[in-house]
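Re: your question from the hallway

Yes, I did run it. Sequences:
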Amino acid sequence: MSDVILKTEGLTKHYGGVHALEEADFEVRKGEHVAIMGDNGAGKSTFVRQITGVEQPTRGKIWFDGRDVNFEGPLKAREAGIETVFQNLALADDLDVASNLFLGREKIRFFLGPFSILDFRGMREATKRALERTAVKIPNLSNTIRNMSGGQRQCVAIARTAAFASKMVVMDEPTAALGVQETAQVENIIRTLKEHGEPLILISHNMRQVFDLVDRIVVFRRGRIVANLDKNKTDGQDVVAYITGAKTGAEFEKAA
Amino acid sequence: MTSTSHGVGGLTFDAKKREWPAEIGVFVALVLIVTVFEILNRMNGTSFLFNMRESVDAIINQQRIDIILLQVAITGIIAIGVTQVIITGGIDLSSGSVVGATAMIVMSFAQTALVNGNPNPKAVFGPWAMDLPVIAPILVGIGCGILAGGINGALIAYTRIPPFIATLGMMVSARGVARWWSNGQPVSFPTESYANLANGDLVGAMTFGLFHWQGQNPAMVFFLLAILFYLVMRYTLYGKRCYAIGSNEDAARMSGINVARHKLLVYVVAGVLAAVAAIMLTSKNVTAQAGMGVMYELDAIAMAVIGGVSLSGGRGSIGGTVLGALIFSVIISGFTSIRLDAYYQEMVKGAIIVGAVVLDQWRQRSRASRG
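Structure:
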């Protein structure tokens, strides 16, 4: 139990009559990279929204870092150490890299309530360190996000997770909108996270990417977890069978 | 093509993509407009900026400069607040009416009991409100600004109605307050110290008599507030959050910024600045009328837009607005100097506002196409 960073038990979310997520038992160990796969509407994003505090589950329990948690909002989850790269990026286009990294938790040099004076140098230094840690290369930190390519934007969003002492990173389809080269760069950043022993939950539709990057694959189907596979003991065809419903994991028979 | 390759994917960075700050363009426009008026004046044997009179020993036409600055000061103070509202992605249509209502209310706390030995003929309240220390009307005025801005901000932040509608309501209601306050009668005859707020010599007081600039206090207040809020927008949490909210409100909210509370604060600041404008205006004119400040909100918005503040939020600066305000005022003075009718002035003013918005749209599209 001590090496488990995140664990859910019976996590369930109903939107009125729609049962988007049913009885999800899930865990991530320290340093482990786990992929969540499944068709559209299988409950992947719903699951992520529950563990990152964007929504509150209908029932079920979440343990994070050894504690029973109940996040009231995304900021609470972030304070606890769960950093999320959202599908829609959540960056402010007109601000520069450092300002985006520190959006909502700016470093203060002189406290004056809402008119507190910002510590620009401190934020820039911390930004540089975060970019180095994630091996993200951005040529000009004072450039606004608006002037950056999709890949660079995604890199900034990911670097944001590294700027703070996060305990786990969640990425919701980080390369869905990227070109081949940009995808390669984002994947390299994910490998860097792995080297640093940072646990990761990766939602992806890209089979090659998943087999390249993660240790374990969890398959969702119609709101339920139907398989929990060790990457080295499975293959693409097998995973597809679970996703489409041709197969169901032995221990999940009752769920199907 | 100066592009550097970097990162594993070999992403490129094109240095040319970095753009000039919009303010530089605005400054160039200001210089051009001044030059055009100078040329037009020279063709009539006069000058726009320079002193042509033999009897006066000066290089610059001080009178013209004073008029340009005085014209710009009152609406300029409002424009500083409106700029902040627009940067957060909102709009404030109420500032002109807030000036009107605040003017009436403030003036009734600034009246003097005796006018040439007779009781004040325009007295609104009894003797208790006569000859109050000058701080009293100032505090009352700022209170009015906080109230009006607070109502605007609370409506926008907590009922989520569009800023256009909320401030339109305030625009109509505040004008109603202005007319109701003294049944449409002007409120006049302030104390000497109140009249001195605008007509005194702030520069003299601040430099211990080294320099003098009698009667230009509104312009001084405008410039001091502009510098203050330029710094606030650039170097403080407040400014950073204004840009963040205007740039991507959802991202700001997801990052944990209390968007509603910040919006409330921004509208309160805008309301207070409108109140300061009202104090300067009534002090300058030593009277308050219910019709004061009509259309000021549109002039203030125009100043911001001309100064490069984007109506879609997230972009622009106080510096740009100050330049936009100067352009606005130079154009009016310029038309007067070449003896163009006031009617034409209004028409051209409208065209300039539309032109500035078209320019902003065009800037955004060209930026998007470069993606």
